[in-house]
Amino acid sequence: MSHLAHLLKSHSDINGVTLYDHLNQFLFSVQNHSDMSTVELLSDFTKKNRFLFKKLPSDKEVNERKSQQPDFAEWVSQVSKLLSTQPKSELPTILQDFVTAARILETAGYGFGEEESYKIQLSLQRLAQETNAVELHFFGKILARGSDYYVARGVTPKQPTDHLGPNVEPRGEGCNYYTFWVTHDVLTDWNELPLITPEQVQVTREVKYVFTGNLNAEIKSYPKFPGLEKHFLKAQLVRITYANLIAPKGLYQQSEANPKELEFTEEFSYPEFPDLANAESWVHVPPQILKVGRITHYFDASVNEEQRGIIQEQDPENERLKAITEDRPLEPIYQSNWLVKVIGDGQVYGPKDEGKNNIYGVALLKNYTWPGAITVANQNGWANLYVGYGFKDTQASFVPIMNNDIQQEPDDIIEFPEPNPKTLPKPPVVDEPPQDPVDGADPGDPQD
Q1: Which pLDDT score, from 0 to 100, does residue 432 have?
Q2: Looking at residue 448, what is its pLDDT?
Q3: Under a CB-based contact definition with an 8 Å cutoff, are residues 254 and 267 in contact?
Q4: Would you list the DSSP string of 431-447?
Q5: Taking the C-alpha atoms of 392, 398, 399 and 402 in order, what is their torsion angle to the nearest 10 degrees?
Q6: Which of 5, 114, 305, 412 has a Cα at 20 to 30 A from 233?
Q7: What is the pTM of this model?
Q8: What is the distance of C-alpha 403 from the center of its chain?
Q9: Does the structure show a pLDDT above 90 at 234?
């Protein structure tokens, strides 16, 4: 109460009357007068006086005060920088039109919204200028315990890199063919992920790890992963890409000069919508990763021809453009590795002008082995996307065993009252002391 009294006495009006004195006068009036005059007294006093609980700054202080920016000022600056005019790239870049791809994905219920998709498109354009990538696509999003990763996938010109080992595939070949960039916010800069080794790919197949959002975080797993989170992330992105990047059959063909390389087919015609909804019309673009963590086998001088033949027989290299119907199904749950279905209106409508018929539905291809990997196609194009934790479905779903039937209750047993020693009659008390036996006589013999 003393603190409250001090607070009331320390604030006064323009006439020097404190709040403490005014409240005393008001309570005195309420006690002696029961009419409305006391309420009018409080109202008039409040209107005429302004109690200053904080000293107003002077003109000099106001003029010298620094301008305060709102919390979203930094976001506005980043967006303005992203929307600014960007110079043309030195190299021709095959840049994905993610805004159009987002409309295809949204028809199937996937996507990031119009605003976020447009920012992703502008961010990809800026990344293409900074890296001079020959090909650039938006991969998707990797969920993490902290900040999630936005991922971009591209192909960069072959450049000399650090020598990681004789069995490591160089940039632009094998598992290091694609380059990946990640960022926590598409308004900020992208970070390129490093090259990976076959040992890192092998360990990622044996452990499951939830990303933290820190690229330099240490991986605590068994077996121990030889690298940091950025290496583990790159290895998982490679595995997901090489298992889920598909394209319509006939779009690519093997090069005559090098069968391991692909080239576009000149006389390719985009399939009709009924064919897009058929799994036989889709093929894998990248090759299959071998058990050794490479696309091709590596043999040093110590391995003879016989040993090479045994290794290649146990882990054969598959041909490019393998059909997705040849994938191993995720048994025993599914009989196929891909879910193919039509979403939306699959009715065929007549052409508006002199073009082809219109179908407003889309075909969805979903990978059972990698939950989160999808491909959506309509009559004008297709788009690939992955959103997930980077986990592979390696086991069947847990189905609890049904309990046995409840048995019938047994027949009731006849109950008897439990004997209680407190309710039993007490034995009689003998007052006379026992007599001593006669000398020489057996205590057990009868006495006369």
Answers
A1: 63
A2: 42
A3: no
A4: -SPPPPPPTTS-TTSPP
A5: 170
A6: 114
A7: 0.73
A8: 36
A9: yes
